[in-house]
TrEMBL record, chains A, B:
Pathway: Polyol metabolism; (R,R)-butane-2,3-diol biosynthesis; (R,R)-butane-2,3-diol from pyruvate: step 2/3. The lineage of its organism: Bacteria, Bacillati, Bacillota, Bacilli, Lactobacillales. Belongs to the alpha-acetolactate decarboxylase family. It comes from Lacticaseibacillus camelliae DSM 22697 = JCM 13995. GO terms for biological process: acetoin biosynthetic process. This is Alpha-acetolactate decarboxylase.
Length: 234, 234
């Protein structure tokens, strides 16, 4: 249980051509951390992992606690956050600037956890995709978008330095889960936050690839994938 | 001692603007593997690590076994190679094609180890750089190049998928050490090989960053570093 290590299953670049099959069971993923984000086979829902519990925000808007399923892509770690700092900000941009300041560098991977009250949160969940899986850019267009006013919950996720853009979405990748477990998803925007922000930076990142998955081993991942990643994740 | 894990200290992108200071002592590096490649502070020499022994090919051409020093960049692992396969090839290009075939995928990190007789090997060692350190492209021009005919030794190193071009040199990164420990370096070219090739692929890569190094934490690593990496490493 290494506290300064971020664990990642799968690589973002493999989602671009449509390798959306789950290649690691949740039970195995959770041995590497009890806090994190991810998605299931077919990008079926946005996962928020807190205290070892896995919440799936479905494209219907429903939030379900789940205990089985496999992830094509996920990040988890064992929390060892620094002391939470009070934060108050009007825009997502200001929050992200404050997150980076609290992390203290753009060059390490880091986790963020912001619990508080939000005047507005806009989040999305991709609709479950089926074989033959489309590429990531197409799935990003096939999503449900939810908005909620005056919601209390947890904004959480990871900062990835730009240098690793092929394996992780560069910048912040944030998910949200309301305290009443009634709303959440992959965060598109938010505003009017009052809460507490905690950050944790990592000296080590362990990238775990689906080494036994024939589709992955044979895929052509050498095109210009970064443009599609940027398009799909923002 | 995880056999399917490649350990890397430092990130290739940080060498580009000249972060050439050693940030991990060899003694610590060797706890993560006894086979590998790397370099010392100021890119002082090309390291070949075999059986836990560290050989430094200096810009003078001298090969020294060393036991201290710090690495800005290195890869190590604990060998668990598959059965060696006989290999005979006229050119480096054919050897690399055979290496990839034996690895069986371009999408995982892998190690290669080719012991044999070489009709020719051309290798380089960068000259030790001093502060203020130049960028990687400049150091690549400031190197000594050595050639040797009819030499028996070990060609070894790693395959990194293109997707991770910011953290590792995409493609093969190969070093050479002659059996008599009299010749070696970062391999530029070779020809006429008869030997045995063993490969090992990794499900996991652990990237260890210099999380306590102020220069690293504050560096601007968000430019277009890949062009410089390609220029310097090939």
């Amino acid at each position: 249980m290494k506290k300064d290590l971020l664990y990642q299953h799968g690589t973002l670049g493999a989602l671009v051509p449509g390798l959306l099959n789950g290649t690691q069971p949740l039970s195995e993923l959770l041995t590497h951390g009890d806090f994190g984000i991810g998605t299931l086979t077919g990008l079926n829902g946005e996962l928020i992992i807190l205290g070892g519990k896995v919440y799936q925000v479905q494209a219907s808007g429903k939030v379900a606690e789940i205990s089985s399923g496999s992830v094509p892509f996920a990040n988890v770690h064992f929390p060892d956050f620094g002391a939470p700092q009070p934060i108050e900000a009007r825009t997502a941009q200001v929050v992200q600037t404050k997150m980076l300041a609290q992390i203290g560098t753009r060059n390490l991977f880091a986790a963020v956890s912001l619990h508080g009250r939000f005047a507005q949160v806009r989040a999305r969940a991709v609709k479950e995709q089926h074989r033959p899986f489309p590429g990531l850019a197409a799935t990003a267009a096939d999503q449900a978008v939810f908005s909620r006013q005056d919601v209390t919950g947890m904004l959480m996720g990871y900062w990835s330095p730009q240098l690793y853009a092929g394996m992780a979405s560069p910048g912040f990748h944030l998910h949200f889960l309301s305290d009443d477990h009634d709303f959440g998803g992959h965060v598109l925007d938010f505003a009017g936050v009052t809460g507490e922000l905690a950050t944790q930076r990592f000296s080590d990142v362990q990238l775990h690839l689906p080494a036994a998955d024939t589709e992955f081993l044979q895929a052509d991942l050498e095109g210009d994938l970064l443009a599609d990643i940027t398009k799909a994740e923002h």
